[in-house]
Amino acid sequence: MADIDWHAERQGLEPLELLDAAPESQGIKLKEVRLYRLQRVREQMARHRVDALIVSDPVNIRYATGARNMQVFSARNTPARYLLLTQDRSILFEFTGCEHLAAGLETIDEVRPAMTASFVAAGDDIASREVRWATMMAGEIRRLVGASPRVGMERMNAGTAIAMSRQGVEVVDAQQPLELARAIKSSEELKCVVASLRATERAVHKLRDAIRPGITENALWSVLHQSVIEENGDYCETRLLNSGARTNPWFQETATKRLAANELVALDTDVVGCHGYYSDFSRTFHVGPDRPSATQRELYRLAHEQVHHNLGILEPGMTFREYSEKAWNIPAKYHANRYYLSAHGCGMTGEFPYLYHHHDYQDAGYDGVIEPGMVLCVESYIGAEGGHEGVKLEEQVVVTNTGIELLTQFPFETDLLGE
Predict the structure, then answer these.
(1) Interval 177-190: pLDDT, tens
(2) pLDDT in tens, 286-309
(3) 140-144, 358-362, 415-419 — which one is most confidently predicted on average?
């Protein structure tokens, strides 16, 4: 990683310039990335006849503007900060005292202090606060787009949405235009994805080197988290690292259990890393010191086979249904504990589309088209119902005009593959 002297000749730089000059930003035209993403949102707004968006999800605020502030805090405390976006105007209502953080962003026309319409902020005055908030927002939207606007809203406390609906505006869900906007990455945006992946891969190498009998899952997981933060990533979205019998079934959170000799350790990174982009790949390791057992190697081989079969069928223009029909058949022994998805979109978080196993398509699936510019994560979990251990593997790719390009570079385990 390049070293930067943050003090030499940099005293006059604005916060945005410091971020753009960080090591992970080298070679990336971040202004171009931000403007592309904003354009994508506005294109989808027009396509879905949405006159104005009130964006409250901090991930989507960052996508549309590049503004980054207390992402985990503001995901829970809504509306603590929010973005009002039309075709011609972008107004960020920032958490009080933090307005300076958006200085210099070409995607934002104006920054104002937010009115936090939550019970924590308003107490028994919450209902009247929500009405004041909605009255103010509806008035601003009418001023910008006209008398009868169609307004897309994200999740907020129920009273806020109800109060807005009583303002005489048509309220619709903002998820569709925002998810569809995020689904297609530009070539410059992909550089951010790769920068985040490389940093996360370095963190996973450190984690792998720290594996030994006696270390706790929590201590091992913290190695990943520390490295992510050191490289200017944001946070790990889940706690999916476990060992031994806790690898089956999947979705058991990291705990105080100590690793034992010769058991498996399974990890799903789920890292919101550099530039806010999601690094989402999974690996399973063997503690040692002995050779993995035949059962462990068989679990790993099958998971590896599933991932690579499904990578092999991905192509631009394929429908979600076609993918589901051609996807790897999970053996009956492992079907009950299957991962809930075969593949999913990936950007600043896990996102649209979800690609389902063909067994689940009729109940959960929906159709669409795999398009160039989509970043997808192809998943596998193999663990028998009632079995002792399981294996989690996952790869991250981008769909190109002619096929797919593998983005993940972290190697698989040769001892578990039997090589």
Answers:
(1) 999 999 999 999 99
(2) 999 999 999 999 999 999 999 999
(3) 140-144
The encoded tokens of residue 385 equal: 């119902």
Residue 400 CB-half CA count within 13 A:
9
Average pLDDT over residues 33-46: 98
The pTM of the full predicted model, rounded to 2 decimals, is: 0.92
Q: Please tell me the distance from the alpha carbon of residue 43 to that of residue 55, in angstroms, as a whole number.
A: 16
- CA 297, CA 18: separation in Å to the nearest integer? 47
Token pair in block for residue 244:
């031994």
Residue carrying structure tokens 């979600």: 320
Residue 229: phi and psi, rounded to 5, are -70, -40
